[in-house]
Amino acid sequence: MAPAFEQIPEDTETQTETPHSAPNTVNNDGQVDYKSRVTVVGSGNWGSVAAKLIASNTLKLYSFHDEVRMWVFEETLQSGEKLTDVINRINENVKYLPGIKLGKNVIADPDLENAVKDANMLVFVTPHQFMEGICKRLVGKVREDAEAISLIKGMEVKMEGPCMISTLISEHLGINCSVLMGANIANEIAVEKFSEATVGYRDKREIAEQWVRLFSTPYFLVTPVQDVEGVELCGTLKNVVAIAAGFVDGLDMGNNTKAAIMRIGLREMIAFSKLLFPSVRDSTFFESCGVADVITTCLGGRNRKVAEAFAKNGGKRSFDELEAEMLQGQKLQGVSTAREVYEVLSHRGWLELFPLFSTVHEICVGRLPPSAIVEHSEQKPKLPVF
Amino acid sequence: MAPAFEQIPEDTETQTETPHSAPNTVNNDGQVDYKSRVTVVGSGNWGSVAAKLIASNTLKLYSFHDEVRMWVFEETLQSGEKLTDVINRINENVKYLPGIKLGKNVIADPDLENAVKDANMLVFVTPHQFMEGICKRLVGKVREDAEAISLIKGMEVKMEGPCMISTLISEHLGINCSVLMGANIANEIAVEKFSEATVGYRDKREIAEQWVRLFSTPYFLVTPVQDVEGVELCGTLKNVVAIAAGFVDGLDMGNNTKAAIMRIGLREMIAFSKLLFPSVRDSTFFESCGVADVITTCLGGRNRKVAEAFAKNGGKRSFDELEAEMLQGQKLQGVSTAREVYEVLSHRGWLELFPLFSTVHEICVGRLPPSAIVEHSEQKPKLPVF
């Protein structure tokens, strides 16, 4: 279904675009180029859906070159063919998004450096543990005037604080990096069900607007927010809340309890984000990346599902075991994020301020039973959220 | 399950209560009475659960008389017995909360005036359409120093603006009225599953704290907020959002879409409340009465359920018909609230500012198909919510 939203012009580029809105106008050869070139770094499930969204827009919008290059980690399929060859032949990522046409203008490229070298708009959408390696390989290889956006949920939370993926990209590559997060389950967007997303940007509004144009479709509504850290932390921390919600489901405690736990989780997300980054805005949590993503992730999603199974088994089967059984090798973001958040909290002496976050981790590692999610996670608020 | 929350003292009245914290100390006979007397006006499903919560606390807390009087609209049961007689004999509301003991100190009273005459704490929890009649009957019959609290979700939204139930009570009876709202499904609280609630109060913090003490149990966590209108509007408007969520479920549109619609609904709740009452606080919407109640109501609840059936039938069977079939005579709050909100919006020229609220009404009355909930309800925000 593709409702006609008045506010999203489908083919009115002359009204909405002006040359200055493009991030830059000179390419590596010194030639003036008013059009932006987009490369998607990553080709998993969400990366493929992102490429599809983008490719439908670059065809329509004047300020983008049609071609969307997609870096694909090369694999040989059971048929003996290479994944990139199949994608380029039938315009479909048969391994990670089967049955969905990406668009003929999506070009799969197994060579990372080649894929990025001409692009001035870089979309990063790989598993977060690969990002540090990718960034190191890309030092000095991307255009100086390139703009990046990270769709990667999850981050490195270290003792001294979280290292945001957008910061990692910015620092390694010396370019500005925005983020796109939101209540978006890739497979639902792939079949064009309505959903929303939030672009978090640092200071340049015109860059944010260019990203919004690149991603928006009638069924995918993107809103820009000047709050990179807030948006990115939403995308990460919500997985911890989803683990808590899964415990409540597994204990069969009902909707009241689940709603209470989700609300407490949202408040801890806000408080944690604001303690780490005082610039984080309250209003960000009412965007798609905030409350809506918490809802989506706590209703569906693999973090919730495996946590439910964990609680049903009374914590007697480990997350590793359940993951292996239920997720065919995928890892749960929520369990590792809960551990990382716990490290930050304990390092800073904040454990008592975040009973839900800390209890999720203690349940995950077996120090507390799943039922502790209710017993421990609610206390009278000690933090002024507003 | 009754987790031990550190912050809710169960039997430490000497630490937490002082005589001045009681709303008043002189009864109708002119005698000093440091203890408050509580009457619950209403005895339906939620009223009975409220009486149970309260009765467990009045037994424990020094500042309340043990007895909790409950006004019961008298009915003759199939057995030929009167409902009040059965409640007083077996401490159970066999009609509206079967299987749950209310406590021996709950006294059912079929005489409204008698039930309220000695009470200085009045808990109103009737269907909202009865409140005007009840208020008229009680003029001059309640103690002048009484404090009221309304648990009634739903209100009269008239052309000139909404008439809040708390206002109705205050104006008719000349007493202060707080509200208690939240993500609480009566039957889940009855079996002592963990949930939360929010007390909205006008100015007297010590009154709010007395209400919090009266309702709080280890499984029912109550937080006071100085924002009567915000809390009360949350309780009402969330039912309109639940209708929208039900449409999405009926159209089988997935979790992304549902989360997006819930988020947009929450934003319209905030915007509507703040336009009507500029004193309404953003933070109220992060309390149990806000985001948590929206979640609970959109996950379960009868508004969602009937709206789902309505959409599944493509709007061809009316809400009246589906209500009659599915709810055994209960009425949907959401459909009538949507109509009342629509009247306010159209009277004030705000229809375009609230696409979700107005679309819900137009779908309910058959002017738009259920699928319009997505096509019409999202527009670029025109209202600054913060």
From N to C, what is the helix and strand string of chain A? HEHEHEHEHEEEHEHEHEHHHHHHHH
**Cα-atom Rg of chain A, whole angstroms?**
21 Å
Low-confidence stretches of chain A: 1-24, 380-386
Which overall shape of chain A is indicated by the principal axes computed on the Cα atoms?
globular
Count the E strands of chain A.
10
The strand line-up of the biggest sheet of chain A is 3-2-1-4-5-8-9-10
Beta percentage of chain A is 5-15%
Largest interface, C-beta closer than 8 angstroms, per-chain residues: A-B, 54 and 54 residues
Tell me the helix content of chain A: 40-55%
The average pLDDT value of chain A, as a whole number, equals: 87
Class by helix and strand content of chain A? alpha/beta
- Quote the distance from N terminus to C terminus of chain A: 39 Å
Q: Quick one: biggest sheet of chain A? A: 8 strands, mixed
> Helical element count of chain A?
16
Tell me the quaternary state.
Answer: homodimer
Family (chains A, B): Belongs to the NAD-dependent glycerol-3-phosphate dehydrogenase family.
EC number (chains A, B): 1.1.1.8
Keywords (chains A, B): NAD, Oxidoreductase
Pfam family, one (chains A, B): NAD_Gly3P_dh_C
What would the keywords be for this entry?
Glycerol-3-phosphate dehydrogenase [NAD(+)] (chains A, B); G3P_DH_NAD-dep_N (chains A, B); 386 residues; NAD (chains A, B); alpha/beta; oxidoreductase (chains A, B); EC 1.1.1.8 (chains A, B); globular; disordered C terminus; homodimer; two-stranded antiparallel sheet
